[in-house]
Design brief:
By secondary structure, the protein is of the alpha+beta class. It is built from four helices and nine strands.
Amino acid sequence: MRDRTRRSDMPAPGKSPGKIKDDAPPPIAVNKRARHEYFIEENHEAGLALQGWEVKSLRAGKAQITEAYVIVRSGEAWLLGAHVNPLPTTSTHVVADPTRTRKLLLHRAELDRLLGAVERKGYTLIPLRLYWKRGNVKLEVGLAKGKQAHDKRATEKDRDWKREKSRLLKAHRR
């Protein structure tokens, strides 16, 4: 008689055991300058209140957040300076403002904690990455402290050393 129980280490029929599933879509926009300019202490995920034309533009990848920043005003978080380029097929009765202020959707407790860090501890809120999650647009917001010139030089020196070290190890393995 055959054992009908499945072993957990066996792959499902038709599935390859060696494949790693990575179904995360690429980000819509990334703020690369933020990690150079700031020490990122924490990351938070926030939703965005968008208009229809903005969603279509984001699906086409027409956004940039390098000049954007987040402010907390009257108990709400807002994204300022993000540029969403309207598509040429945008409706004629909608006035598309590419740099309009967009509301961030955060839980009250999370918003209060961020507000306290910004007002009392001197942190700033920086948009890091714009991406899709289950059909919704999400913004990764970083709680950050600004770097000074010597901090930026030290970070660059460490990065160069890591790159050189990997080259040396690669040459040594040959």
